[in-house]
Design brief:
Length: 205
Amino acid sequence: MSTKSASAAGVAPETGTATRVEDAVLQMLEEQGVLTGINLNEVAKAAGVNRTLVYHHFGSRRGLLRSAIKHELRRRQVQTRTPSQPMNLGARVVHALRSLLGGGSSLRLTTLLHLDGSTAPRLMPNAETTLLQLERDRALGLVPDVDDLPALHATYAATVYGYALFREIFARDLGIDVAELDERVMAQVERLYDSTGAAAPPQGK
C-alpha cells in the first residue's frame, strides 16, 4: 500500500507496514513451523517491504517476534488475565489451556523467542497474582493442601504449554481430530487436577 493510499484509507503508513510484516511472520510460522526460524530478509520479501523498514519498525528479530505476539493476541481478542474468583484447580488449569489454544501462533512465537535466549515475554506473566490466588484457593479447599505452590504452578503450566505446543502431533499419532482431542484432554485435565486435590491429605497429618 502506498503512502497516499494508506492515508486515504485512514491508516497510518507505518502502521500498515508493521501489520503486513507481522502478518508475514505469522504466515511463515504457520507454513514452515517453529524450527525453521524467522529470517528478516525472508520476512521482508513475504511482506513486500524493504528489509530496512523491518529494522526501522522492530529493531531486531526479537523485537519483530514480540510485536507479532501482541498482534496475534489482539487479532484473536485473547484475554491473558488470571481469573480473580475462587476456582477449583482443575477449572483453573482448563482456563489456562483454553486461553493458550485461543492464542493461535502466539505460543510458538514465544517458544521461538525463548529458544533464542530471550527472557521476554514471560511464560508466566501473572505468576505473582496466580500464586496468591492458589494460596487463597488452597485455604478454601479448592487446591491440594501442598506446601510448594510454585512447583504446583510450574507443574500445571508444563501440562498446558506442552499440550498446546504438541496437540496437532498428539492428534495425528492417536488418529483423533484435533478439536475433539482438545475437548477430551480438557475433560481429563480437569478430572485429574480436581481428583488430585480431593485425594491430597492435609500436610502434617
